[in-house]
Amino acid sequence: MKDEKKRKKELISELADLRRRLTELEDLKQEFEQANQRLRESEERFRNMADTAPVMIWVAGLDKLCTFFNKVWLEYTGRTEAQELGDGWAEGVHPDDRDRCVATYFAAFDARRPFRMEYRLRRADGEYRWFLDEGVPRFTPGGIFAGYIGSCIDVTESRRASEELLTAYSEIKDLKQLLV
Asked: Which residue(s) pair with 86 in the sheet?
């Protein structure tokens, strides 16, 4: 009888312990679900900002391969995200610029330093336009390198205007020489 009472008390104690553990697990599950919800909302906010920004945005991971392109980039190139991911984006870089572009990117990436470069990128209609691409390293709050983020802006018209100014300056300089 004593053994039976003792066993009953042990079972009640074990049951209470299991209930406590179950409650702890349910609390952990709820915290996990809330954290996942906050993460989804944060990702949605980032994607919304990136997709509505008036610039082309890209993100690369630790392996130098791109993991994200915003809507503006994809619309400009006329390619899918799957086509651009990894190093697929480099297919759109003008063949005369590709080696320099990739070398600049890799050198900056290896040194974990910002970079700035211009290269021609193919538009969906096949025309190449000049872009200024600026990338910066990303770090976690703890200071651990997490990859790169960059943006590209079309500088074709600016380049054309600069070339026209240089041509006009050269013509004025030549005319001045004739007058002297």
From this structure: 66
